[in-house]
Amino acid sequence: MVSHISMNQASEAAAGFFRPGLPLVVVVLVSIIIGLVMVVVFRYTSDQKAIHVAKDQLKAHLLAVRLFQDQLPVVLSSYGRIVLGTGRYLKLAFLPLLYAIVPLTLLMAQIDRYLGSTPLQPGESFLVTMRAADSGTVNQAALQLPAQMATTAPPVHIPAENEVVWRVVAAQDGDYDVGVAAAGQTFSKRTIVSTGLPRLSPIRLRGRFWERIFVSGESALPPGSPIQSIAVGYPDRSISFAWIQWNWIWLFFVLSLVAGFFFKSVLGIEI
Amino acid sequence: MKSAHTLFPAKNSRRKLLAALVIVCGLLLLFPARSEAYAGPGAGFAVLSSFWTLFVAFLYSAYAFLTWPVRYLFHWFKRRKAHGKAQIKRAVILGFDGMDPELTERFIAEGMLPNLARLRDQGTFRKLRTTYPAISPVAWSTFMTGVNPGKHNIYDFLARDLANYLPYLSSAEIKGPKRSLKIGKYVIPLGKPQIKGMRHGTPFWHLLGKAGIFCSVIRVPVTFPPEKFPGVLLSGMCVPDLKGSQGTFCFCTTQAAGDKFREGGVRVPIERDGPVCRSYIPGPEDPLGDGKAADLRVNFEMRLDLRKNQARITADSETFTLKVGEYSPWIPVKFKAGMGFSARGICRFYLKGISPEVEVYVTPVNIDPGRPDLPISYPVTYSIYLAKLFGPYATLGLAEDTWALNEEVLDDDAFLVQCYANHNDRERMLFDALEKTKQGLCTCVFDTTDRVQHMFWRYLEEDHPAARNIPRDQRPPVIQDLYRRMDELVGRVMKQIDDDTLLLVVSDHGFKSFARCLNLNAWLHQNGYLALKPGKTESGDWFDDVDWSRTRAYTMGLNGLYLNLKGREREGIVEPGAEAEALKEELRGKLDGLVDPSSGRVGISGVFDCDAVYAGPYVDNAPDLIVGYNDGFRASWDSVMGKVTSQIFEDNLKAWSGDHCIDPRLVPGVLFSNRKITEEKLAIVDVAPTILKLFGLGLPTHLDGKPWTVATKTAA
Fold first, then answer.
1. Gap from B22 CA to chain A (nearest CA, Å)
2. For the whole model, what pTM was predicted?
């Protein structure tokens, strides 16, 4: 009996290390692919020889601190050289960083649409937040819900922020348009209730091009609209890996570093 | 070698793109969101490792800073006896192997060496008596220990095995690990190779270190294996290559196999398939073999470009392009054995020609200083530190490949390029050591002086057999250039030192011509002291075909002559005592003044009884007699290798045209000092006690040298 229990505990613990699910599989795959692509990009956009020399110089000055530790002036000058060398090394790594940052950032913004949040569940209440351009619009705003959705509480007005917040619940899975009527016009916001891995847009914005690129997945609200934004409060997604609940970015950070380290060693790339 | 590839080669477009990227990145930074907080593994590594480096450096520095007062007090306590008596804060010793006093005087007189002239004028210039024999490992061992060879046990590069009359390296013994495990065809070594230093005596930097005086010691001969002491040391002459030899180059060629190289190299065929050629570099023995397995190899491939007169070479993971007549940088190579065992080394390629024959010279595979398979420094991290600071460098004891020039695999220019590349590395190490050793001892030995004089003496002499066909006006002033370079180096060092620093320029011996070879084994044979087996008139290398039962004396190595002593040698026939003494006297009488019949010149100017010149616990390992050849003569190449020929005297036609393994009285070294020295007659054995005394240390009683009287201040 005891051994049966402990076996169960062990298998549960082992399963906790890697609980396969679509989000985890996606993160692992994306990390491996990006780890590979980025080290290759780094290889071809960096001065490999200069990076090699810069790293070697850093190691040499570190060793000098150890080898000549009884000679304080040598230790101090070596430390100064380490600081300078670190700056030189970061400078050399900065150029490839510039090449990588634009496509990677755009790519990650898109992946974040899928992995950053979880879709809403039937019966789960969520908040719809409307931010208006002026206080007059706040008082007139009304929520227009599809038949499968209903509010669960009266709206909350926050005049100081020009915001109105509704608490809503959906009865079943679906891809809905939640409408907000104001100043005689109605503006919709896409809202997804699902158990899959759909593309989510937590906010619809007026203008603000760069913010829309990174946080929204919908077309802009019309330029003259009295509403600045409509947001749906999707819950943050956490991914279980190695007995830890991870935000996908952190998991991606760790796994892509591991993948990058592996590929850099295999391909002989200096980073 | 082209190693950095870039995606955007055009500078202007690259700049524009860079500017655009900077703007975009700036915008991204203005609108941060969590998804752009991370920009890939490259940046991740850079940032993480930078912070890690700084963190480790900070910890080290903090540790060094916080504990420094304690350590300073500790060293002061150790040094307190010496502290009050020390006449100098720092000693800098530049060892110029083989710098000749007569040539130096001549070049100073010609105004070629202004810095050495200044050193002479403000301080001291003397001839420095060398050791018996005047051979670098012997003389430098005496330099560092302050004792005669009878106490340090080094008499030549080679010593003989009394059991079989075969030679072995006198300075160090390298054997496989003590234990191994045999599994099928594999013999798995359990543990590290055993390296045993054969030099005895205590180097003076060990005594300085124990007294709390920091020492940086770079490439002093016979410091392999490196010994533990409180300082840093990079081993010099006698460090082996990866094969365990003292330097085996590789000559890859499409030419049909020619003569085997006498020594120092192997010829490897190149397989040619159109513009693609394939060959290999032979490496060490397979560590998993039982000694009968083939050597490990690293294959390489070349793509010839006849139009551009160059080849693209791929060796291991490195690819580089060489024009004909060009050296590669140091290339890392990994010799893979089975079961994950491997040996790492570095070598340089030299593309000798691609048409009509393809010829590539590869230097001996040096131990990689950045990842040493054998210890070549103390601490081990010192060789790694230097490799990280300056890049890979030659670690082989005899790094300048004189054999390749002797065998005409390299020409003069290619040899000199190799020599001065090594020399420049050594200079960088010296100046780094000077910077790091503001107090204490800093010593560095330069071998270039020795190698270049060995190989280019033929151009200095009017009628050297090795240069008879070269008109005088076409002989490059190689040795003059060498001395000029060394003088410039002295000038740069003089700028780095202050009045509290003693500067010594020391050479272990001088140099003379080597125009005529004298095969002493042939003489012994023709005079009835050495017998060959019936029907033989000559022997092979290492006494092949020698009849030991009728042999009373033999020679191997450069200056040693041995009696075939009963009870000592395996097949000895000479009774120790009166018979041996009588034989020694007889040989001395006949050999001293031996005349070269072709010129009437004396070939041997002195024969020295080792019982008279050596004293100490290791005298039994010494030769019985030391043969002092006259200026212009030296032991023949065959004689050195224990070969009996029919000719006693013959011309030396090799590029190796100068030498010092002759009568030690004819080849003293030099001593320059920035301080006045009272004594007139100085010897290399005196350097160690002098330095110890100047640092205020008491002298061990076993030292043979006597300290000099050195002025307390540098003359203005």
1. 7
2. 0.84
